[in-house]
Structure formats: structure tokens, C-alpha cells
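Exercise 7b. C-alpha cells:
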């Protein structure tokens, strides 16, 4: 019996040590053992953001995909004196953003303002993702979190960073573009910088070909607006900026603008809409990292100030920016 106990202890001890290390070095402060200042402010994982949201329960919330995921929340506070949380994350589908809205209202009864991104790209019927079931499972089941392969990899990376003294930072840096990116090989000036054109044609056009407006998600957005009106939550639909290359190489050739001209008035009838997407708001391509994402140095701070310090505070402002 004694030998059996020794063997069982020898087997169990490494497992206990490993999961003890997981609790200490896990990437998203799931267990609430770290100070808020120790959390990774630059991380845009939805699990990390949900955990932060549940720890802080902010009155103001940002929802959307990667175009809304990289705001500097401290800069917003500096501009406005208000505290915002974010559940925006890269690749979020419209249905997932709506699901996260309902998750937020169930978790935080003190929501006062919701800034929710809406885009033709996410209102495409074929752009559907369903990760909420897994997200809900992980948020409610610590064992599911601890056994998730990706989070274990991130935990081990945190151990490595701690041992080597490496500090991680923001994932997107200022874009630096060589002169040749502005010209074709024969010396003719390009209408758009090379990466803007390639992003529009290779990434966005491919997804949007055969575009069909998702009427179901549009109806769900109206339900969100009606809920906010009934519960004194200020809802602002934001159509994030898109570069001219996106509008002129994707939206107009595919006739997506006709869908936009249909659904924008519907949204306006139920909530406040700030439209920076169509027609394009920023004509200067240098403000963009690619056709959808503002450059984190040249464009994003400018848009942050415009949106949070100028346009959102203007009650009764016109619906189109």
C-alpha cells in the first residue's frame, strides 16, 4: 500500500506543480490573482477582455471587431474623463458582437453607454462565426480554461518571458512604406498604396463576392436598440472608417453600397448612428495601416479623439459624420 501511495504521489506531483504554475502564469488573470495593472492592456483576446470586463464592470462599453479593438482606453479616459471597457476583438462576426452585447447586459446591470460597430463586412450573410458556446464554457468552467491547449501555450510563453526578462507589447506598429509602394513598375503613380490595393482585392473582395445582406442580424440589431431604449442605455452604432480603396474597389463594384443605403436608415430609426464608413470619411490613405485599420500612430489617435471627445458627446448631432 505504501509503495502504491508513493507511486501515485510521484504521478500526481508533476501535475499539481504544472497546474500550480498555470494558475500563477496564466495569460488572462482568469482567477483574479493579479493586480489590474499587471493585466495585458494590449491583448485583444476575447477571453482576456471578458475577464477584465467582469472584474471592472465599466459603465461604458465598446463592441466590434478589430477595427474597434485597438483603442487606447487610457487615452479615451484622458480625453473624456470617462472609463470605457471593451469586448471588441479581432475577427468578431456581427452575430458574435450581438451575443456579447447580451452577455454584457446580463453580467453588468449598470451599463450606461454602448458603442457598437456595424460594418457592411460583418453584415454579410456568409460572414458567420459561432464561438460563443466555447467562450461561455470557458468563462463558466475553470477546468475547461486550464485544459485549453492555446491557453497552455500562452502560459508557457509567459513563463519563458518571465525567465528571460522579455516584455511583450502592442501587436500592430506604425506602418512604414517605401517609395516604390506608391508606383507601378513602369513608374506610373498608383491610385492607392500597394498594400491598400492588395488588401482590398486579395482580402476583402474575396470575402464579399456574392454579398448578401444578413437580414437576421439586422433585425437583431434593431432588438438591441429597442432594449437599450427601454433600459436607459445610450446606444451608438458606429460604422468605422474604411479607406477609399475599399469603397472604390469592393463596395461600389459589388453594389454593396445599395445594401448600405438600405440598412443605415433602419439603424438610424432606432438609435444614433455615426457613419464614417460610406462614403469614406478619411480620404488620406496615410492614416490607414491597411484599408480597414487605421495606422496606430498616424490615424487611430485622431479617430479616437474625433469619436470619443467630439462626436459621441454631441447629443442630437446629425446621424452621418
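Sequence design result:
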Amino acid at each position: 500500500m505504501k509503495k502504491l501511495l508513493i507511486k501515485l504521489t510521484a504521478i500526481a506531483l508533476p501535475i499539481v506543480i504544472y497546474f500550480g504554475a498555470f494558475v500563477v502564469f496564466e495569460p488572462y488573470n482568469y482567477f483574479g490573482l493579479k493586480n489590474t495593472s499587471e493585466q495585458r492592456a494590449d491583448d485583444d483576446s476575447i477571453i482576456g477582455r471578458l475577464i477584465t470586463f467582469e472584474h471592472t464592470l465599466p459603465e461604458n462599453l465598446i463592441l466590434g471587431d478589430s477595427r474597434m479593438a485597438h483603442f487606447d482606453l487610457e487615452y479615451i479616459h484622458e480625453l473624456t474623463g470617462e472609463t470605457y471597457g471593451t469586448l471588441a476583438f479581432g475577427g468578431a462576426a456581427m452575430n458574435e458582437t450581438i451575443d456579447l452585447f447580451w452577455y454584457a447586459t446580463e453580467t453588468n446591470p449598470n451599463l450606461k453607454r454602448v458603442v457598437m460597430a456595424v460594418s457592411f463586412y460583418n453584415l454579410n450573410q456568409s460572414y458567420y462565426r459561432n464561438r460563443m458556446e466555447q467562450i461561455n464554457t470557458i468563462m463558466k468552467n475553470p477546468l475547461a480554461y486550464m485544459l485549453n491547449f492555446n491557453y497552455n501555450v500562452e502560459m508557457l510563453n509567459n513563463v519563458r518571458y518571465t525567465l528571460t526578462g522579455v516584455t511583450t507589447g502592442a501587436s500592430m506598429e506604425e506602418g512604414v512604406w517605401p517609395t516604390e509602394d506608391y508606383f507601378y513598375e513602369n513608374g506610373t503613380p498608383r491610385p492607392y498604396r500597394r498594400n491598400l490595393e492588395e488588401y482590398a482585392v486579395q482580402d476583402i473582395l474575396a470575402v464579399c463576392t456574392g454579398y448578401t445582406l444578413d437580414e437576421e442580424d439586422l433585425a437583431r440589431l434593431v432588438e438591441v436598440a429597442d432594449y437599450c431604449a427601454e433600459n436607459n442605455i445610450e446606444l451608438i452604432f458606429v460604422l468605422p472608417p474604411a479607406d477609399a480603396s475599399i469603397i472604390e474597389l469592393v463596395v461600389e463594384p459589388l453594389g454593396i453600397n445599395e445594401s448600405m443605403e438600405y440598412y443605415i436608415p433602419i439603424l438610424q430609426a432606432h438609435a444614433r448612428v455615426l457613419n464614417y464608413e460610406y462614403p469614406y470619411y478619411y480620404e488620406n490613405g496615410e492614416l490607414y495601416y491597411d484599408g480597414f485599420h487605421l495606422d496606430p500612430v498616424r490615424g487611430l489617435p485622431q479617430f479616437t479623439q474625433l469619436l470619443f471627445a467630439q462626436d459621441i458627446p454631441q447629443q442630437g448631432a446629425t446621424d452621418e459624420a
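Instructor comment: Residues 1-39+128-169 form one domain. The chain has two domains: 1-39+128-169, 61-126+174-311.
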